[in-house]
Each structure stands twice: as C-alpha cells, then as structure tokens.
Amino acid sequence: MSALFDLTGKTALITGSARGLGLSYAEGLASAGAHVVLNDIRSELLNESVQKLRQKGYQADGLAFDVTNEDAVITAFESLASKGLQVDILINNAGIQYRKPMVELELANWQRVIDTNLTSAFIVSREAAKRMIARGQGGKIINIGSLTSQAARPTVAPYTAAKGGIKMLTCSMAAEWAEFNIQTNAIGPGYILTDMNTALIEDKEFDNWVKSSNPSKRWGSPDELIGTAIFLSSSASNYINGQIIYVDGGWLAVL
Known about the structure:
This protein is an alpha/beta fold. The protein is 44% helix and 15% strand. It is built from 8 helices and 7 strands; from the N terminus they run E-H-E-H-E-H-E-H-E-H-E-H-H-H-E. A 7-stranded parallel beta sheet has the order 3-2-1-4-5-6-7, sandwiched between helices. Helix 2 links the parallel strand 2 and strand 3. Helix 3 packs parallel to helix 4 and helix 4 packs parallel to helix 5. The protein starts with 10 loop residues before the first strand and ends in an 8-residue tail after the last strand.
C-alpha cells in the first residue's frame, strides 16, 4: 500500500512555496520522497525555507522567478533542465488576495489578482506539460482552487473569478493532456489557518461565522491539506483527472 503514495525519484515544483500552504505542500511531498523545488519572488525567504527543509533531511532546492512573467517561467524550466531536473509534479500554489467592493475595485488590482491566481497556472502548467509530453512518462499537475471555486463571497470578486477559472482550467487541462498520462486535478482548501487569513482569523465576528457555519466547527490547519496533495501527486490517483477535491471540513456540504 505504501508504494502507491511513494514519491521517491520524482521532482516536484511548488509555486509560491517560501511560506504558508505552499511550504506545507512542499514539506509533505518531500516527506513522501520527492525532490522538491520551492519557488517565490522573495529570494531571501526562499533560501531560508530551502535550508529548513534540508536541515530536516529532505531534498530541496529553490528557484526564484515571477510566475506571471512568461519569459521568466520559460527560463526557470530551462534552468532546471540544465541541472538535470525534470518536473514530474507541479503544484500551482502561487496566489494573492485583494479585498474591496466591486464598485470601488480598480482595474489594475483586478488584473493583478487574475494574473497571479489564474494566468500563472496556465503559463507554468503549459511549460511543464510540454516537457512531460516530450518525455513520454506522464506527470501530475495540481492546481490550487478555493471554496470560491464553487461559492462567492462579498468583496473578493477577482479572487472568486480566478478560482472559478482554476476549476475549469483544470478540466481543460485534463481534456487535452489525459491521453499523455498527465493527471490534472485541483485542491479547494476551506478556511485554513494561514498568514493570508490573519485578518479574518483576528476578526471575532468572522471567526465566529467560520466556526458556526462549518459542520466541523473549526478552521482547518495547513497540515490537513498534505494528504490530499500527496494523493494527487502519487500513482494512487492515476485514473483521477479533471477533479477538484474540497478540503473544507464539510462547509460546502451544508451551504
């Protein structure tokens, strides 16, 4: 059974992984045997996170590039290839949030969220898939969605549009790349205790709403997403394609 989830010999690129959920995914895959490549635009923080993983005995490298910059993404894949690293697993985790009512929302900030949360997943996945297809050994692509891939909330329109797009982009990738033994799926985290949600966690009214509206009566923790990430990265999920798995404590089930 353990062989189904063994990632030994696989290289995984996780975008936006210098901290937060991205770092959790990276550590989880590394614990399953993968050689992980962390990514962020903050080089110093990225290097610190790589060193922390290495100190735990994991195979880890860092690659600083902007996932919204097409040329930078292409150069990053070329850099990996020059080091003898081919991406077998890609997790498109990079993302940002921007809260504002739509009638006050600036176009520049709308575009910034769409570019970071949706367009980057297309660019990085395209470059990964090109190389997976050429090698003929298949691969795994995991996009990170959200509860807002399914249900809208006020003041986060660009994030909601981007994460809804992630859901259908995942389906499109499966439709085009499944024949090449590439499985593309998504994870939809619920309300998780992360840095991005600090303001919400500290808002007593919102904190109470999260706990009262969720059948589990609590926020999720980052480590509760690791199992799903390992599953979708492993041979245990070889006939699962184009799906989004919500890890939300049951929130959507009672919406």
